[in-house]
Predict the 3D structure of the following.
Amino acid sequence: MIWRKVRRILLFYSMITSGIITTITGFILYFWPSGPRAGQLVIFGFQKQVWEDIHTYLALVAAVLIILHVIENKACVKMYIRETLKG
């Protein structure tokens, strides 16, 4: 019982953390200046390519964590689907 609770807590906070960091890196990349030398610009110690890599990998981690979250809560998901399709 305790392991299941710890696993769910870790999964939840990992999803939240990776989602927030992915959002922050997305905003950084969105507002990154454009132009021929914009890729050489350094923000918080990283160039654009590093920010893109961080954003991509964390988005993949977030997607995997969301899938694990759905698997962990499959009984609730089945109930939600059953209730909404009942009509």
User: Anything to note?
Assistant: Helices lie at 2-30, 48-72, 74-86. The longest helix spans residues 2-30.
